[in-house]
Design goal:
alpha+beta; two-stranded parallel sheet; 8 helices; 8 strands
């Protein structure tokens, strides 16, 4: 929600008053980013600007405070080719926003991506036993597993974890964290179409072994069994309460 700062107190008070009957309450900035896990919004895909001569003028224009310069990269996935870290707008869910009736830069590329999809956005649900093993090993193993922060485990701007099937790379996972609504630890991911069916069992590599940074402690990779689930993960929860809240707010005004 955006609006004049001078109105923020009035709007906030109205939200708190009306929202109370629906169980709406303040939960703080730590919980806020976990909403992306359930809505399946990919907040920080790696910008596709680092590889081509066509984007060189833009890279030269950037300054240190820009996210494309300042942002860090982390996670278990490692490749010498920066293009392997990219995700296209269609596979992250922006396909319905493409207006085919207009002409714009990149239209042909988006049309090709929509016509010949390679991957699909899914939710990955972590195996409980493997999650507990990673937490244990982050404290007591030598070398330790990478520490898992709660409620959101992502620790870099552009976080890319390796998703595999029988040791073969089949996708990448971005945000990972705990959903208080589902009581599950989940990851947002794009995987090859052949492995995107709900119920498919895959493996997520957790840790960071080949891109050591001062902010990341010494660690070793851990295999985590994950199961493919729909994205959004809570489609009914997202759509139905939203309509009721909008109706309630309309009545309050």
């Amino acid at each position: 929600m955006f609006g004049p700062w001078s109105d923020h107190e009035v709007v906030l008070e109205a939200l708190e008053e009306v929202g109370a009957k629906y169980g709406m309450r303040k939960v703080g900035s730590l919980a806020y980013p976990t909403s992306t896990l359930e809505s399946s919004w990919m907040p920080h895909p790696v910008p596709a600007i680092y590889h081509s001569d066509a984007m060189k003028p833009f890279r030269e224009w950037l300054t240190p405070p820009h996210l494309e310069v300042l942002g860090s990269m982390g996670g278990s996935f490692y490749s010498e080719d920066i293009k392997d870290y990219y995700m296209d707008p269609v596979e992250v869910g922006y396909g319905p926003l493409i207006d085919a009736s207009r002409d714009f830069i990149g239209r042909q590329g988006l049309e090709r991506a929509a016509a010949t999809p390679r991957r699909k956005k899914v939710t990955l649900v972590w195996n409980h036993q493997d999650l507990m093993s990673v937490i244990h090993d982050s404290l007591y193993a030598d070398p330790p597993a990478r520490f898992i922060n709660f409620p959101l485990a992502t620790y870099s701007t552009f976080h890319i974890d390796d998703v595999q099937k029988q040791g073969r790379h089949v996708g990448i996972a971005q945000f990972s964290g705990f959903s208080a609504n589902a009581r599950e630890f989940i990851s947002l991911s794009v995987v090859d179409l052949e492995h995107a069916e709900v119920g498919t069992e895959l493996t997520l590599l957790w840790g960071e072994a080949r891109m050591p940074r001062p902010t990341v402690e010494k660690n070793s990779l851990r295999e985590v069994r994950v199961t493919v689930a729909p994205a959004p993960y809570f489609e009914k929860v997202i759509k139905q309460p939203g309509a009721r809240v909008r109706s309630a707010l309309a009545g309050a005004t």
